[in-house]
Amino acid sequence: MIIAASEKVPLEKCPALVLNADFRPLNYYPLSLWCWQDTVKSVFLEKVSIVSNYKRKIRSPSFEMSLPSVIALRSFIKPSEHPNFTRFNVFLRDKFTCQYCGDKKDLTFDHLSPKSKGGITDWENVVTACSTCNVKKGGRRHTKSGMVLNRKPFRPTVDDLHENGRNFPPNFLHASWMDYLYWDVVLEPK
Asked: How far is the C-alpha of 79 from the C-alpha of 57, rounded, in Å?
């Protein structure tokens, strides 16, 4: 849902989209958002530049400013080439889909070569699986289970995860964010 915030929107519902110094989002999923307090503090500390504002204003007895909706860091943060191995990042790599049956509910992760058989917990040995498929495979090696993988696991890059994250937009998207979230998407001719 794309929202255009008015002056009546509570401050808590006015986060700022955070862009790197190259005007690309720091993350797509979860989206890089700062609460309004951190945003205003960073503006005053001159750590960020304001790119776009809400219609909402904040006031003190001696000061008034439009609340920023998009900010850009003044110092570039070099993204790491490879993301950390976390449960969330495995799910994101696998697009929140069981790699055996394609289900999207009751997800866990599965070791292709079980830990009990010497398998390690890393990008190449772990896939997203629904509970049903995980129980069905049991403590057997993937090659002995008779189950077919939709896609072989791999170590993703940050770009791989960003690309997948774009498929899962958050529930709240402010209209002023759209030019920065999807600026590199191929446009369809009308």
From this structure: 33
For 52, the token pair is 């776009």
Angstrom distance (rounded) from CA 48 to CA 153? 38
CATH entry, 87-145, from 3.10.100.10, 1.10.30.50, 2.40.37.10, 3.40.50.2300? 1.10.30.50
Give the CA dihedral 30, 32, 35, 37, nearest 10 degrees.
Answer: 150
Query: Could you tell me the residue ranges of all domains in the chain?
Result: 2-80+167-181, 87-145
Query: Can you tell me the distance from the alpha carbon of 91 to that of 141, in angstroms, rounded to the nearest whole number?
Result: 21
Phi then psi for 88, rounded to 5 degrees?
-60, -45
The pTM of this model reads: 0.71
pLDDT tens figures, 125-165: 999 999 999 999 999 999 999 999 999 999 999 889 888 88
- For residue 118, the one-letter residue type is G
